[in-house]
Design a protein that fits this description.
The protein is of the alpha/beta class and 360 residues long. It is 30% helix and 17% strand. Bound molecules: 2-Phenylacrylic acid (8OZ).
Length: 360
């Protein structure tokens, strides 16, 4: 069932993937009108269904969890119905797709929050980063610290969103624990100075991510649950004084839960792989199920890493934007098309569904 090449099947939880190439989550900001993915999203994802697994763009679990204009949600019936078109289209092409569950925490703006409320965070520390809102870039808003008694509600929002994802036809979900969003803000001490059970020690800072993973795994099955982490990425203004101890502990906890995979952003998100010293092999050793490696992989690096046993699956992000047939192009060593940065975020079909496959 499971082959040793990038282009042979791989067993992930209960699923058999056609190959080891994963489409990484990519924010595209095309879900206006109720944050519902439309027909164009179904076409876009179906065009990329030859990936062994697609991980959807990050999708907010609640309005509070939204941080950018026109990103999709998974908390209303209309959103579930919109996503159903996507999953049907991908499955119709023989693909597999997980939904990425997202709460941005402090990376948000009052204009995206209900009644102009402050975004929520582990601690009232504003992120040094910008978001896209009101058709332009703006500094994120000053957040407020979550009260201890609000935390079960956040865990429950993730749980409900996972159930909604399954009812929308997804094969599973990926919990977004990376890139400076809420769960990563809790894990890293630059953004978390809490003095309760969710701050301070490595164990306490891991608590929310592990509680969310446990709730989601209980709701839809550990075999359908993955978690994305970015131990040393400074993306969205996060920093950690002890990333190795922190993420070794988190991965131990995820291993104990038996989740299907960890998806690891190695280095700085979208940037250098050697941004900070970190032993990713330690995470690999601690985790019995699949390790998805991400960040700056090309065919050569993925092939070498697979041969060395460093990872099971390889997630490609930006290359999938302009190359819907990326798997075929990698397999045949065909040239890759380049994306147009002007059409990355927002807009319609241009720069979204109009990148052709070779010969297509
Ligand atoms: C780029 C722009 C907006 C959001 C991430 C969800 O980095 C994102 C994101 C990336 O995980």
């Amino acid at each position: 069932m499971t082959g040793n090449s990038l282009f042979e099947p791989f067993k992930l939880g209960e699923l058999t993937l056609a190959n080891r190439v994963v489409m990484a989550p990519l924010t595209r900001n095309r879900a206006g009108n109720g944050f519902v993915p439309g027909d164009l999203a179904a076409e876009y994802y179906a065009q990329r269904a030859s990936a062994g697994l697609i991980v959807s763009e990050a999708t907010q679990i609640s309005q509070q969890g939204q941080g950018y204009q026109d990103t999709p949600g998974i908390y209303s019936q209309a959103q579930i119905d919109g996503w159903r078109k996507v999953t049907d289209a991908v499955h119709g092409k023989g693909g597999r797709i997980f939904l990425q569950l997202w709460h941005v925490g402090r990376v948000s703006h009052v204009d995206l929050q209900e009644n102009g409320a402050a975004p929520v965070a582990p601690s009232a520390i504003r992120a040094e980063t910008q978001t896209f809102v009101n058709n332009g870039f703006a500094d994120v808003s000053e957040p407020r610290a979550l009260e201890l008694n609000e935390i079960p509600g956040i865990v429950n929002d993730f749980r409900k969103a996972a159930a909604n994802a399954v009812s929308a036809g997804f094969d599973g979900v990926e919990i977004h624990g990376a890139n400076g969003y809420l769960l990563d803000q809790f894990a890293k001490d630059g953004s978390n100075v809490r003095t309760d059970a969710y701050g301070g020690s490595v164990e306490n800072r891991s608590r929310l991510m592990l509680e969310v993973a446990a709730a989601v795994a209980e709701e839809i099955g550990a075999g359908r649950t993955g978690v994305r982490i970015s131990p040393v990425s400074p993306f969205n203004g996060v920093s950690s004084s002890d990333p190795q101890a922190q993420f070794d502990h988190i991965v131990d906890g995820l291993d104990a839960l038996g989740v299907a995979y960890i998806h690891v952003v190695e280095g700085a998100t979208g940037g250098p792989r050697d941004a900070a010293p970190f032993d990713f092999g330690s995470l690999r050793k601690r985790f019995r199920n699949a390790y998805i490696a991400n960040n700056g992989y090309d065919l050569e690096l993925a092939t070498r890493s697979l041969g060395e046993g460093k990872a099971d699956l390889f997630a490609f992000g930006r290359p999938f934007i302009a190359n819907p047939d990326l798997v075929d192009r990698l397999k045949t060593n065909a040239p890759l098309a380049h994306l147009n940065p002007a059409t990355l975020y927002g807009g319609g079909a241009a720069g979204y569904t109009d990148y052709p496959a070779i010969g297509g």
